[in-house]
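FAQ
Q: What does a multi-component entry look like?
A: The components come first, one per line:
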Amino acid sequence: MKLPVIEPQRDDITQAPSINPELTAQWLEAFLRDELIAGRSIERAVVGLSGGVDSAVTAYLCARALGPKNVYGVRMPYKHSSPASLSDARLVSEALGINECTIEITAAADGYLQFEPDADARRRGNVLARVRMLVLFDQSAKLGALPVGTGNKTERLLGYFTWHADDSPPVNPIGDLYKSQVWKLAEYLGVPRALIDKAPSADLEADQTDEGDLGITYAKADAILSRILEGYTNDQLVTRGFDRGEVEIVRKRLDSTHWKRHLPTTAMLSNTAINEFYLRPVDF
Amino acid sequence: MNVVNVAIVQTKPRKGKYRENLRDLRDVFAQAGADPVDLIVLPEAALTGYFLEGAVYELALDSDAFAGDLSAAWLETNPGKDVDIVCGFYENCDGTYYNSAVYLEVANGNASVKHVHRKMFLPTYGVFDEERFLSRGRHLETFETRFGRMAMLICEDCWHAIVPTIAAVKGARILIVPSAAPGRGIEDGGELTSITRWRGILESIAAEHGVYLLYAGLAGFEGGKGMTGSSRIVDPHGRTIVEAPPLGAHIIRAPIDLAEIDLARATLPLLGDLHAVLPDLLADEELPLR
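Then the predicted structure of the entire assembly, as C-alpha cells:
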C-alpha cells in the first residue's frame, strides 16, 4: 500500500512582491503625519504632479494624512511635455480636491539650455528634473510646506532618476515600495484608472517609456530586485526560473548606481568626520 | 498580594527631548494614578526615542538619577501613593553605556531601585547598530518584588528562547519586556509581519513557562522607521488579554491574578519538567559553554 505523500507548495519567487494596500496606506499616513506635523510642525505638503502613478499615490496619501486643503499639487510642464501628462495630473487634483498650480518651466530650463545647444537627451532630462526640484522647494518655502518625494523603490534601486533632483525631498512615503506595489496601492486608494493603466514614462522625450529605457518590465524587475536584495545570486535566480539576460540587466544597473543612493563622498580627515564619527539621527 | 493592577504606558517620545518627555510623563502618571495601579511598565528608551546613534552619550543617565526623575514625576502627581515602575533608558555607568531598564519601587513616599537590567543581546545588523554605541549586559538576574519574583528582558533578549527560559527556571513568575521594535513586512495579513512575529514569541514564552508577560512597545516614527507599539499583557496560559494598537501613545491596563500562574503550571507542567531535565541538558559535553 502506498501512503499519500504531502509536500509543501513551493513559492513562486518569480512573482513581484505582494502588498496589503490597506495596511500600507494606514502606515504611510501615520508616517506622513509624524514626519511633517509631529516632527517638523509643518502641516502642508507640496507634491510635484507629473501625471504618473507615483506622484498620484503620493498626493493621495498626503491628502489622507493632512487633509486635501493642506496639499499643493504642482504641475511643471516643459514645452515638449505631453499634454496627456498635464491632463492626467489634473485628474488627481480634481479627484482629491487638493490645491493645484501650474508652473511652466520652459523659460527657466531654456534660460540655461540655450547656452548648451549640443546637450543630449540625458543632460536635458537632468536639467528639467533639477529645475522642477528648484520649483518644488521654492513653492514649499512660499507656502510653509514640505516637499514630499515621489520616487519608488524600483527606480531608486535601478538608479533611474536624477541625483539630487527627484530624490531630494526630505520625506518620501513610497520609497520602500516597488513599482508593482505602488500600482496595487494606487488601485486601493482609487487613483484614476487612466494613470494606473498607462505606460510609465519620465516624459522627457516623445514616446519615451520607462520599461523601454530599462529593457525590462517593472513586474520582472521588481521580482528580480526583491530577490537580489534578499541575497540570491544570479545563478540561483536563473535556477529558480528567471531569465539570465534580465537578471543581468537588473544586477548591472543596481551595482553601478550605489553612489546615487548616498550623500556625496567627503574626504575624512578627523576623528569627528560628519556621518563617519559624528553620528546623529536625522530626527534628532 | 494576589491581584496586581498593571498599567503599560506605550510612549511616543519626541526624539532626544528627555526633559519634555519627562514633563509629559507627569500627565500620564496623573492619569494612570487616578485608577488603582500597582505596577507601571514603560518601553525601551521610553523617554528619549530608540535610534540615537552618537547622541546616546549625551542622553544616557546614571540609573539613580533616572530613577530619581521617575519617582519625582510619580510623587508630584500622586503624592503618598505607592507604585512600582519599570522604564527603559540609556544608562551611563561611570562612562560605560548600556541599554537598560530600571525597576523602581515607590513606597511610603520613598523610592528604591530594586534592579537594573542591562540588555544582553544588542542587535547590530540591518537597521540596528546598538553595539557600535553600547556595551552588553553580562547578567540575567531575577529579583524579588512585593508582587513576587520577576525578570526584565529588553527587546532582543526575548528573541532567544534560552533567556526567558533561564529567567523562568530561576524563579521569575512575571517577565517584563520593554521594547522598541521598528515595523516591517507589509506583504500579507492584516498587520505588519514583525508584529505577528512578536506576538508569537511572547505568547509562546508565556505558555511554555506559565509566566505573565508584560510587553511595553515604543511607538512613533523615528526617521521613517515606525516603532510598532502593540504593547500587550499575556497571561500564563499564553493568551493576550489586552493589547494596544501599533500606532500612537496609549495606556493598557488589567488586573493580573497571580494565582493563574499556579493554575497554568498545574495544567501544563513544562517548567517543572525542565527543572528535572535541565541539569542533564547542561551537562552535555558537546555544548560549547566555554
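Q: Is there any commentary attached?
A: Sometimes. For this entry: The mean pLDDT of chain A is 95.
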